[in-house]
Every structure is written in structure tokens, then in C-alpha cells.
Amino acid sequence: MASRKHTATNDDPVQTGTRPQPGHMPAQHLAPDEQEADLELKPRFMAPDYQGSQKLLGRVALISGGDSGIGRAVAVLFAREGADVAVAYLSSDEDADETCRHVEEEGTRCLLLKGDVRDRAWCEQAVERTVQTLGGLDVLVNNAGFHKHADSIEAIDDERLRETWEINLGGYFRLTRAALPHLKRGSSIINTGSVTGLRGSAHLLDYASTKGAIHAFTKSLASNLLERGIRVNAVAPGPVWTPLNPSDLPAQEVSEFGRDADMKRPAQPEELSPAYVFLAAPACSSYITGIVLPVTGSVGSI
Hints:
By secondary structure, the chain is α/β, with parallel strands linked by helices. The chain is built from nine helices and seven strands; from the N terminus they run βαβαβαβαβααβαααβ.
């Protein structure tokens, strides 16, 4: 008797890439002092089937929140495309060192910048160190972010509200302001938005609001910088397996993370990073500015 082929059911994660991606997340909660290195299921960021073709050769990129998650995956692919990379991060030294190691293994330089995007002076220093050490700045990726679930608006006090806005939107403003004197015609700014900024989120009221603002900031800044030849775009990820949610959700909820996407699984960071390469590289996107590109694993994201 011929063997039966497996057919997908309504509960099966959808696979469309060159290798199967994890569909079920571990029931793990990260403590405040834990980081990506402590995750039982390590996020996939290497994109082994992605072949570089020098799309960013000779360019310098600065990535905030570049030590882990999407930022790490973007740093690795930018390096694979020939860019030197400055990785800005808040506190996770072990994660940052790991990112730096992988960037350097791709054959380019990596500069680690530890500090807080809420600090205007630090943002200016981070840009200056990037320019002085790596020789310029061509691509800015605003990616650092903070979120924490809340059951109601009453649970979000003013201190929490300020923290979310100061990191998620204020950090983007500060790094962009500091970077602009060094950017030139053909440079690119890429902001990390979110599907929550497109659809809203019942339990991420402050975070979703900042992401909607980031989308508006992207389009407004694109118009403002158009005559200077600097493109500004955003990527709006859906659920992505990074330390952000395991550090915020109970373990049982983490095990269900991403199952409500149409593909019934979260993305791995390596499934997001090619979108950033596309938007950074003039060879790919010289006629694209002011867009919010959804990479959500679902149909009809806007």
C-alpha cells in the first residue's frame, strides 16, 4: 500500500520558505535579567539560504536595538551585503557580543554602542562614534523598542506612558536628528513599526499607539526629506520570536504566541531581515519612500 502524504490541517503552521520554521513556542517566561541567549528556542537570525550580492558594499549602518531579535538579524544580513554595522543596545552585553561576532564573521566591521535612546546626548555621541570609527553613515535603522501588556488603560500610569513613548518614538526622533547631518543623497532611514500600529491591540494600548505614531512619523519624514534624496520607510512586523514577548507574558501565553496569525506561527527574525535589506539598498528600492511594509504572516494587514 502506498504511504499517505501528510496534508495540512487547520492547526498546522504554514510553511512557505526554504526551510521549515518552528510552529510551537516553548512555555517559557524570561526574567528581567535574562536575554536572547537564555531562550530555550533560540530565534533564527542567520538566514542561511540568503546569498549576499554586495547591495550595501561600502556603506555604514547604525541599528538601534541591534543586539537581539530583529535588530540582530538585520545586522547580520547588512554585513552579508557588505555594510559595516554599528549596533546600539541598552544593556544586554552577552547578546551584543554575539551579534558583533556574527557581523564580523560576515567579513565587515562591527561597533558596539551601549546606551539609552532616551538620552539625547548619548544618541548624538552614538552617531559621532559611528561616523568617526566606521567612516560615515548611510543607513539608520530605528528599531529599539519597549512594550508591556496591560489589561486596561487604568493599569497604564503616567510613568509607564512616558517610558513607552520616550523609548519607542522619542528614541527614533533623537537618533534621526543626530544622524541627519551625516546622511546624504541616497541614504536611507528604516523604522520598525508593528502590525499593532495598523490594527490596534487591546492589551498593548500604549505600545500600539507609539507604533501608529511611528508609521505617521515615517510618512511625514519621508515627505520632509524627499528633496534631500533621503528615503524613509518602515517595516511593520507581525508576531516575531524575539525576547520581547517571553519577557512580558506568562509562560503558557508564550507557548501560544503567534498562533493567531493566518500562518498560525510567529515569524523568525530571519524572515524579517530581508525586508530591511530591500528598503536599505538603492539597487532595490530607489523609487520607494514613505511606505509601511507589512510583514505579518496574515492576509489583509492594512
